Amino acid sequence: xxxxxxxxxxxxxxxxxxxxxxxxxxxxxxxxxxxxxxxxxxxxxxxxxxxxxxxxxxxxxxxxxxxxxxxxxxxxxxxxxxxxxxxxxxxxxxxxxxxxxxxxxxxxxxxxxxxxxxxxxxxxxxxxxxxxxxxxxxxxxxxxxxxxxxxxxxxxxxxxxxxxxxxxxxxxxxxxxxxxxxxxxxxxxxxxxxxxxxx
Length: 199
Known about the structure:
This protein is mainly α. 52% of the residues lie in helices and 9% in strands. It has a three-stranded antiparallel beta sheet.
């Protein structure tokens, strides 16, 4: 989920914690490196290591969802073949297990309020979201982001992988100077916040 209530937290998200545990295990038990990385990468479909894998599995899933069994078989076969290659590359130090993870690009939209918890009705908390994981509807909650802009951001993220910075996002998605400034202000506002409690 891309939405977050409250203030930024200094510690890494659960996925990164799990990733670090896998890396520590592989370094402690070098004979089991390939197996350790293999379990993690198979579980996550290798998307932490490769954007190409993320796209390959998405294409296979789309074919399956539409009932195109022949395309599903072909695309899933290619995706699993690429996954095996990726596991081998990671296990032999040719590719980082987190090569496809982008930084968290959080912005705070004080104009858009949400409830602190699903069971509460009163909207008191500013909306915060990660631009590297937000979907189209979430992006459209930001002032100045219409559906065409949201789709452009998502298309660039899918094609290139996660954005390395807010500046890169603004440049490659061809955002207007006004929207770029607005996002920079929301990012700065997020940066001024202290610890938060995740609901």
